[in-house]
Design a protein that fits this description.
With about 425 residues, this protein is α+β, with helices and mostly antiparallel strands. Helices cover about 30% and strands about 10% of the residues. It has 12 helices and 7 strands. Helix 2 packs antiparallel against helix 3.
């Protein structure tokens, strides 16, 4: 019987790994899980990428993936450490079934100006033209590799930053061209302004003198102007009817020029006496349906401009044009729709006193059927919104206001034409 430890005693099988390992004691104790040992000698040499066992790590691949414990082998409470303080590399063979970790592709050198990291995008968000540039992300990377300036622009676009545009080289002559253009515009503008002023002066002459001349000429205008000019056969008021409707009036009678005697109620005649009466011109119109009639008059005064301004201020401050006892009289014409138009049929009226003309313009309206009106109403009140009186609902206030405005406009147009012809 061989003696223990003798030369003929059986030996434990050598572990795989070659003869460079130090033989250990006989395997008499229960099998224990392989404990990591510090590698020495040839075992410390790094394995090639093709023969490196799974679970090993190097500088290119990072830390090894954890190896799950096998059934029945306890997990150590704390992995053993080497004398240097780092966990030793495992020398045992990993469990079967753990696939090796594929090597990472070699990193390519980043060109100058390329993005240091990809643009941050939300999950599921794709990089559009705004993030990747006009030619896309691939075009931006190619341009970055070819041109440092283009790479810088691609880098800024990839990060969503707004780069300050590099100033372009000034084109020769551009500043001079802009200066010349601005000077020409300024010269043209000044020329147009001076031309307008000179044209106004040549057309109007001396402002105050022309105004005085026109005021004096207006006093005798009626003598050389046809009646159809001062009282057109048809007058149209755009939006002059109730609710903004258009209104049309047709002239049915013209009174011969006369003095002002009997043309006004006594109190109105007294109110107009300070300016005098040189001539009274009148005409009567009917609306499109011939249900209303209106007499329009032009009182040519003897007053100067100061007198007309005084009369205008008095009518405005004392509200003389709103008083029902200061009414103009109508002009009835036999054989027309206005033959029954008398004082009792007056329903609405308007009196206008221009400050720049020697005239007083008035209009008085009534029903064409000859009905009496108990309470006449001034045109300003009869045309107010919400008015419910008979003159207001019949549009008689609109007739008086529209015809007075139309005849005054015709008078001014005739005066301007006469002054231009002189």
């Amino acid at each position: 019987m061989p003696e223990p430890g003798g030369p003929d005693a059986p030996r434990a099988p050598e572990p795989p790994g070659g003869s460079d390992r130090v033989p250990g004691p006989p395997a008499t104790a229960p099998a224990k899980p392989d404990r990591p040992r510090p590698a020495t000698g040839a075992a410390a040499a790094p394995a090639s990428p093709t023969t490196r066992p799974p679970g090993r790590a190097d500088a290119a691949t990072g830390p090894p993936a954890p190896i799950p414990p096998t059934a029945g082998s306890p997990f150590p409470a704390q992995p053993p450490t080497s004398p240097t303080g780092q966990p030793p590399r495992p020398t045992g063979r990993p469990d079967v079934g753990v696939p090796p970790r594929p090597p990472e592709p070699p990193r390519q050198p980043r060109p100058y100006g390329a993005a240091s990291h990809p643009p941050a995008t939300a999950p599921g968000q794709t990089v559009g033209a705004r993030d990747a540039g006009p030619a896309g992300a691939a075009g931006a990377g190619t341009a970055a590799a070819a041109d440092p300036v283009a790479g810088l622009a691609a880098d800024l676009l990839a990060h969503g930053s707004t780069a300050t545009a590099m100033p372009r080289a000034a084109r020769p002559g551009r500043g001079l061209a802009r200066l010349v253009t601005a000077a020409l515009c300024a010269v043209l503008g000044v020329g147009l302004l001076v031309g307008a002023v000179l044209g106004s002066l040549l057309r109007e002459g001396d402002g105050p003198a022309r105004s005085t001349d026109a005021f004096q000429h207006a006093r005798t205008l009626w003598r050389g102007v046809p009646v159809d000019t001062l009282f057109p056969r048809t007058l149209t008021g755009r939006g002059a009817g109730p609710g903004g409707a258009d209104r049309t009036w047709t002239r049915i009678a013209v009174a011969p020029d006369d003095r002002c005697a009997g043309a006004f109620d006594p109190l109105l005649a007294t109110a107009l006496s300070p300016v005098g009466c040189a001539r009274l011109l009148r005409a009567t119109y009917a609306d499109a349906t011939s249900t209303s009639v209106t007499t329009v008059g032009l009182v040519v005064t003897r007053a100067d401009a100061a007198g007309m301004r005084t009369l205008r201020n008095r009518f405005a401050t004392e509200r003389l044009g709103q008083r029902a006892d200061l009414l103009p009289k109508p002009y009835p014409a036999d054989g027309t729709a206005a033959e029954g138009f008398g004082d009792a049929q007056r329903a609405s009226w308007r009196i206008s006193v221009p400050a720049d003309l020697p005239v007083v313009v008035y209009a008085v309206s009534g029903f064409a059927d000859g009905r009496d009106v108990q309470r006449p109403e001034p045109a300003d009140r009869a045309t107010a919104r919400g008015a419910t009186t008979d003159p207001a609902e019949a549009g008689l206030g609109h007739d008086a206001k529209g015809l007075a405005t139309g005849v005054e406009r015709a008078f001014r147009t005739a005066l301007n034409a006469a002054m231009e012809a002189r």
